TrEMBL record, chains A, B:
Domain Non-reducing end beta-L-arabinofuranosidase-like GH127 C-terminal: 526-642
Organism placement in taxonomy: Bacteria, Bacillati, Actinomycetota, Actinomycetes, Micrococcales
Protein name as it appears in the record: Glycoside hydrolase family 127 protein
Domain annotation Non-reducing end beta-L-arabinofuranosidase-like GH127 middle: ranges: 431-523
Region of interest called Disordered, as start-end residue ranges on this chain: 585-617
Keyword annotations of the record: Hydrolase
Species this protein is from: Oerskovia turbata
Domain of life, source organism: Bacteria
An example Gene Ontology molecular-function term: hydrolase activity
Residues in Non-reducing end beta-L-arabinofuranosidase-like GH127 catalytic domain copies: 28-420
């Protein structure tokens, strides 16, 4: 296993001090067109301003002004963690500024930072929720208070700012907050942790930005304090905030799905920077079991509405999927770190699945409304969410512009703004491309060899990806591409040669010359998938995928009114027509019965039992990408379709 | 439709002033042996004292003393509705005293009543939670404060006392509380309702006990105020407390399943006493749709953990079933009232199903631990609940002795103590027997004709029920028996004649002589049942029932370690051996895969896909009554079994 020492190249959310692969930053990878470029543009022109508008409208930004003006707690609005949404917007803006300088956006960023900075107390404490007369004491409610969680997002915003340039006020604020945290919660301080992991990952990255080892040490302390009964017990159980088992001893993610992933990401950062292979292995095992047993087809994680938590193994109901957008983002954070630490393609497979089917599903096409939860089955047409009122999290509505708990919109924004940083890496051997989009890659190998590659593709519509080398290099190097597990077959060709490649990583090694092309052909033909028998909730059903996209049947595209009437015949081939995937099925017309359970061999006694089977006549079942659903008004939808 | 005017006969929880059937009370029906007599005896000797012990231990009884001694709110313990658990214990004790006089129990009852009564304020207000300095103002939180809910249980306890005799202090307390409620919330008073329905059903019954019409009018007011946005909105939505739609306009039960049923029961009481056929029809429609689309095979209701609520139609996951014990009891309350109002056997069918499979499932065999929720599928062996600490509601433990929210144990206790009152009715035409147990029925028809019948049966083990008339009567009358919908065939015989009867109601009419016997033979042979296709969560599965009992496979009885390994072949016959029902199946040995979804036609690529089918060798799948499960230590269990 080779290890690359990190360089200070900017524009990267995650910069482990040692890793198998070195991540490339926003100044090294630029997405120039296609699926993700469209979403980045919408994020830039619509989402950032939308979020800022709602933060003002709901008074969550105003809380900072109220603090300065002595109007707290009376004037405070929003939940205990509302400060963090402001910080996530700052982080999104910072990455966006790293992607593309913009004086007006920079001024808005600075204006918000000044409002935040004004609230910081001399000792570094910063919260609009605690510590004033009439408020709870500082750190009086570590289980639910979210103070350290808020610092975490503050610090992540500062890290983004530090790595993308511009005024450093936010970095100074974050350092003071981090110093304060180390003073209060250090080795000799209070043996506490936050009920919502996040500070860990943030302190580790701040340590990388600043070179301050004690921030990393503090992150490690917080990681290790989990699982020792550090927090009070709560109704959801101690697993809710991963205080049930030490991180090193757990075998699967459990409890609140966002908390679980954020903690895992933090543990991986600590493992990377301390060379702790045991900790890395523990989290890798948890990831593996979670992916094998607790993850939806979409990559979504978390099947409990009650506690936004992972269910037990194989409890993955499509119609009560929680699959919180933020849990998807947390999963990407975790998978990305595991990729950097190991170089294994399976981690990027999950990143791709989660990006296309969770993160891309959350925002509406116009970027101003969002799903907080991402159900896999909508039984009743959703209502149009109120335009001017924050919605509840898991409402049965279409996407909503804002939520009372609104972690997801700014989380999507920061992810889209920094997305290119998750696409490619280098090591001493060469360049690795993990995600596919029209892109420009301009970097150098650790020995200084400049590498310039353009990527041309219509992915995911097409499976053809052409990587064009723009510059001669004096040495041979390896261009590695990920062959996704979903591609039934794949071919790689260059210099007139073509060969089959297996899922995992495929490689072309040569002394590349300007103009050399490597062409990857993935099989994006639609495919029928079935689930492990132990996922009881989808027994007897199939789903259809195409390339990285999970497809769904939305009622608006069907010849029946409700997707509940669709039954698919998986023995008949899928067709592609005019950009749509079409399965063949039949119409099921279930009979309403007084009691929905019927005796099996002796049916239809007294109006009970029976229910007619599917009709004989074949019908088309039109399938479209799941991430596109619910953009045309109320509808019913299902990913898993019963078979005949 | 005939209508019987109610008489003041005691020992009945529900005495509509007019109804098609007149309920018989505890002084008219006595359960003398068998399944339910055993549970009544356990309730008497173990459960009542167990509940009293925990009410003392947790300080919920002590709250009343603390109120008198001026130690509130500092000394208050328990949740905002803890007073109600004390009242439910009183109600259970009162019914038990009506069932069987017991000086020691009567003294305990009186002692508790005195502690409660001492807290009542001069204007009738009574709460340990609100109204004192440092507490919330009276009725300042109708959404969650539960003050009126607590009065409801206080009044129901008083009604039980009034109808079973003994000291009347509690009745006086309840009247003062009811007068206070009328004064505060009357037509010209505050237009509020309680966030948890219960006061409605209680005031209606108090009106029947006291003859005070205004209690009924107040109940009607509360019923009608639902659905007008009377309460503030909450995250779970206004449907949570049935404030989303007027009772007359709703078409199905929705929101919190206990609240929904309690409100329905109250509305039916109002409908009965005001002759409001529209209101009766509205609730009957809601019941019908709820039973057809939102009820588990067990009779359990409520599929959401988050808000203890009904899910959308056909969302009935076995492994995330909530099926709260109290919701089952509420369902029985509603069904019983619908039976009295209409005489239709389907209501008693649901009462029977819910009694055997929800209410009987909640307590352990020894009557000192309980299920709050009643899952239909236990995937991971439950832990032994702590013996000395109140458990959370939906823990993954075996039954627990007590809960932080402990509504279910005393609710089971009051139901068991009054159970005989749900077994038989009379009308001008004769006697109706709705539930089967060894029992003595001693009553009179409305014209005074004495009717004395003994019931002999080994139900539910046997389907043979013999009804023996003990007394000549000078007139002919009709003995009607319910033929449950589950009985594939049934025969009735008397006087040497035998005839087949259909599910519903079967009748023998004659001038009975002492010693006449009517013999009902129900088919309790085990039967395989399937679910409506729209209940996606159990597609491809079957369940097995026997008589009124839903059966389950518990791991302790199987030759495999975990019920997840069982697959049933429904084409092979069920067998009965030594009291066990045995299905034939195969062992499924699912393959662990890195990703639990596999491409359908091209499986087993790279270790993904595939998974072996069930083994060839046949094995026995041992099925036992669901209500018996989890009495022998940790196990896995499932009611719905996948088929080959």
């Amino acid at each position: 296993m080779t290890t690359t020492t990190s360089r200070s190249t900017g524009g990267r959310p995650v910069v482990p001090s040692s890793s198998v692969l070195r991540p490339l930053g926003l100044d090294e990878v630029r997405i120039t067109g296609g699926f993700w470029a469209d979403r980045q543009e919408t994020n830039r022109v619509a989402t950032l301003a939308h979020i800022e508008h709602w933060l003002e409208k709901e008074g969550w930004l105003g809380n900072f002004d109220a603090a300065v003006e002595g109007r707290l707690p009376a004037a405070r609005r929003g939940r205990e963690f509302s400060d963090s949404e402001v910080y996530k917007l700052l982080e999104a803006m910072a990455w966006e500024l790293g992607r593309r300088p913009d004086g007006e956006l920079d001024a808005r960023f600075d204006a918000i930072v000044r409002r935040v900075a004004a609230v910081q107390e001399p000792d570094g404490y910063l919260s609009t929720m605690f510590g004033r007369p009439g408020q709870g004491d500082r750190y009086s409610d570590l289980e639910w208070g979210h103070e350290l969680y808020c610092y975490g997002h503050l610090i992540q915003a500062a890290v983004a700012r530090a790595r993308t340039g511009g005024d450093q006020l936010l970095v100074d604020v974050a350092r003071r907050a981090a110093d304060h945290v180390c003073a209060v919660f250090g080795p000799d301080g209070r043996q506490g942790i936050c009920g919502h992991a996040e500070i860990e990952v943030a302190l580790a990255e701040l340590s990388r930005v600043t070179g301050e080892r004690r921030y990393l040490d503090q992150a490690a302390l917080f990681v290790e304090r989990h699982g020792n009964g550090t927090l009070r017990d709560i109704e959801f159980g101690r697993s809710y905030f991963q205080d049930d088992q030490p991180v090193r001893e757990a075998t699967v993610f459990r409890g609140h799905a966002v908390r679980a992933n954020y903690l895992a990401a933090g543990a991986l950062d600590v493992a990377a920077d301390t060379g702790d292979r045991d900790l890395l292995r523990a989290v890798a095992t948890q990831w593996q079991n979670t992916v094998a047993r607790r993850t939806y087809l979409t990559g979504g994680q978390g099947s409990h509405h009650q506690d936004e938590a992972f269910g037990e193994d194989f409890v993955l109901p499509p119609d009560r999927a929680y699959a919180e957008t933020c849990a998807g983002i947390g999963s990407i954070m975790t998978s990305w770190r595991l990729l950097l630490a190991t170089g294994e393609a399976r981690y990027s497979d999950l990143v791709e699945r989660t990006l296309f089917n969770v993160v891309a599903t959350s925002p509406a096409h116009d970027g101003t409304s969002f799903y907080y939860t991402n159900t896999l089955h909508q039984r009743v047409p959703g209502a149009v969410a109120p335009a001017d009122v924050a919605s509840v999290r898991a409402s049965s509505s279409l996407r909503a512009p804002w939520f009372e708990v609104s972690c997801c919109p700014p989380n999507v924004a920061r992810t889209f703004a920094s997305l290119a940083a998750y696409f490619a890496t280098v090591d001493e051997d060469g360049l690795q491309v993990h995600q596919y989009a029209d892109a420009q890659i301009r970097t150098a190998l650790p020995d200084g060899t400049p590498v310039e590659v353009d990527v041309h593709t219509d992915f995911p519509d097409s499976g053809v990806v052409v990587l064009r080398v723009l510059r001669d290099t004096g040495r041979d190097w390896s261009l590695r591409v990920r062959v996704p597990a979903w591609s039934a077959s794949a071919r790689l060709s260059t210099g007139g040669e073509t060969w089959s490649v297996e899922p995992g990583t495929a490689e072309v090694r040569r002394t590349f010359l300007a103009g050399d092309e490597v062409r990857l052909e993935l099989d994006v033909s639609p495919r029928v998938v079935t689930a492990d028998d132990r996922i009881d909730a989808v027994r007897g059903c199939v789903a259809v995928e195409r390339g990285p996209e999970v497809l769904c049947a939305e009622s608006l595209d069907q010849t029946v009114d409700d997707v509940a009437e669709l039954v698919v015949d998986p023995s008949l081939p899928l067709r592609e027509e005019q950009g749509l995937v079409i399965a063949t099925g039949r119409r099921s017309a279930p009979t309403d019965r007084a009691w929905p359970y019927a005796e099996s061999p002796r049916t239809d006694r007294d109006g009970q039992g029976g229910g007619s089977g599917p009709a004989d006549e074949l019908l088309d079942v039109v399938l479209t990408p799941y991430h596109d659903w619910a953009n045309r008004g109320p509808s019913t939808m299902r990913i898993w379709l019963p078979t005949t």
